[in-house]
Sequence to fold (588 residues):
Amino acid sequence: MIHHELETQLIRALAAVLPDVDPAAIQVRPCPEPRFGDYQASALMGLAKARRMNPRQLAAEVVAKLDVGQWCEPVEIAGPGFLNFKLKTEALNAAITQMAGEERLVEPSSHPRTVVVDFSSPNVAKPMHVGHIRSTCIGDAIQRVLRLLGHRVVTDNHLGDWGTQFGKLIVGWKELLDRQALDRDPIAELERLYRMVNQECEENPDRLEQAREELVKLQAGDEENGAIWKEMARLSQAQFDTLYGRMGVQFDHALGESFYNEALPAVVEDMMNKGIARESEGAAAVFSDGSLPPREDPFLVNRDGEWVAEPALIRKSDGGFNYMTTDLATIDHRLRTWQPDEIVYVVDDRQAPHFRKLFLTFARWQPAAADRVRLRHIGFGKILGEDGRPFKTRSGDTVKLSVLLDEAEERALKVVTEKNPALTEAERREVARVVGIGAIKYADLSPNRQSDYQFSWEKMLSLQGNTGVYLQYAYTRIRSIFRKAAEEGVAVDAGARIEAGEPDEQALAKHLLRFGLTLEYIVEEYRPNYLCAYLYELAGLYSRFYESCPVLKSAEPQRSSRLKLCELAGRVLKCGLNTLGIETLEQM
RNA sequence: GCGCCCGUAGCUCAGCUGGAUAGAGCAUCCGCCUUCUAAGCGGACGGUCGCGCGUUCGAAUCGCGCCGGGCGCGCCA
Fold:
């Protein structure tokens, strides 16, 4: 990548001027304003400031040592000390031609890491709903970007298949189960059971006690309760398989909470022995170690002006375990099994305090292991309805994922039918499926993950603007050229170079060269929306090129050059969309 | 009460490890289909980046203080 060459050269030139500079501080980035150049470096100004030097003079000294003539016009020093790099047309053409000729669009990372990505995590015996969309879409996109960059990825779906809710569910199963309803719609029936018993528990302490007893029996290995639990898990797995199939999401592992059940007593015992946890009101708890100032300490909470302990409980007073313990055992298992450099948790931002506690607790429990792994909570915001309130159905229930996907496809089908009635019904249904699912995913991935966003069918499936449909349409327009070419017997000269002559061609080519760089930025902070923004811009640049530069009607060698540029744009667009987990179509 | 997040164009949102004249889409208005899919393209209009102070050559971005909204705060996950 040209960008890396420039960065390397800049670091080399700077080292000749200031030998003790940290190269990591030097970055060459795409120029936000094309009229200043194609790439820029602003790091010298900060450096000059830190050393009380004249920034422009430092820039001049570095530029004097800088040898990038192979790629760039003479480097300009602008404003207070920016370096502006403008690509030579010749270098641009060589680079884009080379990219078009290579099989892989992205250079693999020079430092591949092993990353465990923990995402989706639906609950057994409950329907998947809108609340699972974000974790599933964002997590899947993250793992795809990592793989594309050549990292080793382990995806693990940490199913909510164990825990307090099963006490209530077992009570319901034993006393209130409607077999026919279970056959018709197992998840709905399980949900009904849970709701009924949960309601009863709120009003009746005896019922709550009964549920607790069933839970304790289950956790103690009771055969009957174990069989019921297993059946509920099986029914749920069928639901997950269906929905993940529709969404095109796969996992390497689905080690749910139950997988760690047997490991939990030893975890608590070990932590008690090591003095990290202690008894408190009958429970086993981890308290603050006082290493952080109170306001940054997740083991403390302020109540009426007093900082009081808020320990992490790893065993409840009734002897049961909770998710903190499970999560500790999970980290332990993942480190032993996969030796990851990093574990990322794609989970709602509201759980941030839990993860802070979890990571700190683990570091106290296994300091050496914790030093070798980076634990990161990748949080995200809520999905709101069009009224700005949390997204619910009209009757106030959570929106089920299956219903949401159905509606997306239905709405997309209407649009396709209106826009392209020439397609057969089967074709239109396929287009509707790809467009509908893609629209939901794109709507979820294009905002900054930490923002809450407003869910709007209208906007999501809008044919204009920054939507999945727009990108998919841009792709079909590219493919359409090649269909037309085949019809007319036009062949691409395989040896042709891409000569980007027109401004719209050059802008497109330059943007294509930045694909890999965009992916690298994404992985730093796990922000898939950067890829959405990149692809939206790509589609726009392609459309402009498409309007202003005839492809099939131009004469050789321009025709082959443009066909190759189209092909590359198509490959990048498709690869980028697929990396977001979004499918493309040849026609729509 | 304490903590976290948010406040950018009429609406929905980008941009935030400081960088050049703050960007999109929608909406409104004006243009472009005898030429590769008009599900498209071009243009116009629209902003005290919640308010104030500070740090800096430079602040939407960093710090402090307000105002407004959301979320979270022992045996759920």
